[in-house]
Design goal:
The protein has 174 residues and is an all-beta fold. It contains no helices and 14 strands.
């Protein structure tokens, strides 16, 4: 039996398979854990990813051309990034050896609660993130888009260099 994660409360968020048949188990609750298993199921490594002074949790993941994209949320601030809301979205990019190659942290207007739930990657490495955002104040903006309700569903596109391309907000209130 191999150990993955750090606590019995770690939740399995996703499993991915690369072009060589290796699998990657994405788990976590307040940290992000990635475990690599070879094509025979033998654990190769387990690595932890976290921001200083924050809590991070994976939500979903994708793999394309042996590049791992982890969609998550954070209450901390990742290196080279800025915190803007109570919960910011996080896209963590890893190679198949578990090395962090890139990270993108974004949020809405403070005190926004940005909860990403899904991520898709196209053949060009552009990624699309979806989830919901809510507020406890009257300011309701995300990527210069305004929502008139207390909670909205969002869909956003970023190119392969992490540059924001567009955001669409949809009201959750009837």
């Amino acid at each position: 039996i191999s150990t993955v994660g750090s606590t019995p409360n770690s939740e399995v968020k996703d499993v991915l398979v690369d072009s060589s048949g290796n699998s990657y188990l994405i788990t976590g609750d307040t940290n992000i854990y990635v475990s690599k298993f070879n094509s025979s199921g033998t654990n190769q490594w387990t690595k932890t990813y976290t921001s200083p002074l924050g809590s991070d949790g994976p939500r979903s993941a994708e793999i394309l051309n042996d590049v791992i994209y982890i969609n998550g949320l954070t209450t901390g601030t990742w290196a080279t990034q800025s915190k803007t809301g109570n919960f910011d979205s996080l896209v963590l990019i890893l190679d198949t050896d578990g090395n962090q190659t890139s990270v993108k942290q974004t949020g809405g207007s403070s005190p926004a609660l940005l909860i990403p739930s899904s991520l898709a990657v196209d053949s060009n490495g552009n990624y699309y993130q979806a989830g919901h955002i809510s507020w406890t104040s009257s300011t309701r903006t995300l990527d210069s888009q305004t929502c008139s309700s207390s909670s909205c569903v969002f869909v956003r596109k970023f190119n392969s260099s992490h540059s924001h391309q567009w955001t669409r907000l949809y009201s959750w209130d009837s």
